[in-house]
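Hi team,

As requested, here is the filled-out complex form for the zinc ion run. I kept the field names the same as last time so the parser does not choke. Let me know if anything looks off before we queue the next batch.

— J.
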Amino acid sequence: MITCKKFMEELGAYLDDQTAPEVRLELEQHLAECPNCWVITDTTKKTIKVYKGMDPYPIPCDLHNKLLSALTRIGPRQTGLGPGGGNRPKS
Ligand SMILES: [Zn+2]
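And here is what came back:
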């Protein structure tokens, strides 16, 4: 008999078919007895399906460029404070 905590630890491997046959059997026994874990497993399975269904598309170029310009905008402002450090020479 395994606990819900143990079940959660093995869930990822179980969904990936990475568990040993005897562990898999224990997990399936737990699923049959524990509605909570059954719902979580079912939801996770569906989430993985949806996620994999959307996966073929890479990050849009537009978003990538926005991120990049945002980063370069922040960059020089931060490093610009470096030289001198506020110690401005007065004439
Ligand atoms: Zn459980």
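Two things worth flagging: The mean pLDDT is 81. The domain at 4-73 is CATH 1.10.10 (Arc Repressor Mutant, subunit A).

Thanks,
J.
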